[in-house]
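Hi all, a correction to my earlier message: I attached the wrong file for Outer membrane protein assembly factor BamB. Here's the right sequence:
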Amino acid sequence: MHGIVNHADGMPASGVAVTNGTQVTRTGDDGQFELPDEGRFVAITRPTDHTAATWWLPVSTDELRFTIERSVQSLPYEFVHLTDTHMTVPQSGVESEKGGFTLYREGSLPDEIRAFLRSLPEVAPDAQSIFITGDLVDHGLAEEYEAYIEALGASPVPVHLIPGNHDHMNGAHGSFVSRNNYLTNVGTPDLYEHYLGPRWYSFDVAGLHVVTLDWHTHELGLDHEQQNAWLRADLASIPHGSPWILLFHDQPAASIVDEMPWLPIAAFSGHWHTSRVVEVDGTLHVNSPTSFFANLDYSPPAFRHVTWDGEAITLRTQIMPWLPTPASLGDTSTATYAASSTPSMDDAVLWRAELAGAGQRQRVTVDGDMVFAGAQIEDRPAGTVEALDLATGALLWRAHTSSAVKTSPVVAGDVVIAAEVGGDVSGFDRLTGDLLWVTPSTDPLRRFAWGSPTVQGDRVYLGDQSDLRCLDTRTGEVVWRRTDLSPHHNLVNHSAPLVVGDLLVQGFWPTPSHPVGLDARTGETVWASAEMGADDLFAVLKRLLILGTAVFDEATDSVVIPAFGATTSIDRATGLVRWAQEHEGGFSPATPIVTPVGYVVTVTGHGLRMVSAETGETLWDLPIEGDAAFPMAAYTKAAHPVIAPPVLVGDELLLPGLDGVIRRISLDGVVVGQTQLASPIAAALVDAGDRLIAVGTDGNVIALSTEVAR
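and the right structure:
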């Protein structure tokens, strides 16, 4: 097949790359090109400082004619990275197991996307384009695509799109385990191609080559060989070693990285509904959060400003500017992504220390006269582990890590152990912070580490459902490892292992659909609820969707587990269900609190609930209201103060909030007092005797007099 590319003035455009989806050629001096008559689309690579109203055509088009127009792209070149917009159309008619939709009421709505795009001159005045890396729509329906295209018309700058797995659903949600042992959904790209055209293509901006691919069909094995061939051909059309970036719905793994003639300087992805920035073999891997609802790692809805200065990529992450920030909290526009400072002046504050990065849901660890905290620096691949003096808050040492530390450091004798978001685990000298050992991530391209480590004796346990490990605390050497509990998938695990004697109990979300009991010494299975009879309550519930860390109740010899909209008690010795109590709250990862009265359950977005230890029956329910600055509970849009569990101090519960308020609550469910801080708090307080230690999402560590609980 033959075609031509011209400039807007009618002159031929030479040297423009053109592809049929497998082969790549360039136009001659006369602007003409020739390609084998195959594939579904012919697309041009829009050159630097140019755009095109039509940059792709179906191969069946009678006249393959393209016109490129001048469009200046200045350095530094900034683009906005959005991902996983999951746009829905109200009353789309898609039904599911809980509440009418799968696990959430809606993604974004057309008006919300439109409003953000119209606000771009204010929120991102330097942005020259927008890159959206998949899951554009939620169910892959024709009406969603039509509404999405209409909403994008509000953008003041060019928008570049790629597909995600939801874009291929066509209203179906069936599951599939890929050739790479990846659990995802089935799909077909027909509707995406009908409305949006090619699923892989390239373009240039300000001297930077941008490559896009379709992760989902690549993972399903529908066209991975064709995409790999096209990628090699596309990169062969530019000078070897030229800077390029990849847009991919999921974090690119070996199945695509190994096909690259040379590595990109950066890769931008979504899919996980998290924030994760790592560097692997010189490539900056930027996994961005969703922009219109809170994320599965409990980070707020946000977007990234990305700047290309001609040599390197830099990031600036910003919370979506929906809600006014309460005056008591100061600037929260970067909370959980970067450190900020608003002093807390309450009389109960004994000292305040600023970490090098932000906090999130990870609490501090107090050991003797020292406080240990992890921090995240989400605008580059970095984090810290920091040691503070318990008495004064003075910094004793700070160790830098290669990616964010979103989990609590733990102490094993003279070693402080921390897990990074990329999966590396490090041991530091407790007194000096010197690095003692590093156990590398088992797969830095695919490991997303959110669950805190658990120490027992000279062993530390950590990992997710597809890679659970036991390490020697003295050396970091692997004692045992389980990779057979579940296929790999993108649904993050927040539960830390619970170790009771020689039994390790852990649940995962959403697979396996049951908790597991393992021999903590060997990793061998002791029991699994899936092996129980059909009358077992887990079979009735179909899948437990365990979201957080369990707690052991010695009085009843049971393990109490937080799940999606439920709390469950199981027998420690057998794994049999004692009771399962459903409640509102959806994604509530907070560990239940064992009290003399019963179990206190944190109902995220609602408040606290006391349930009977024997039956799970609700004893009292306490709604909480307050002015939080942003939502953190997964898939929510409305800000609410409650996400963290309380701590039991004496005969009172102390509940921290995203509104900066610490509430004192009696064991009969009555609020008896409160303290206002200047930091949103999403992590449980730590009782350190005469003081309580809180860590804010802004990276402030605060010591409060225990009298706050009196």
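Sorry for the mix-up. The domain at 73-319 is CATH 3.60.21.10 (Purple Acid Phosphatase; chain A, domain 2).
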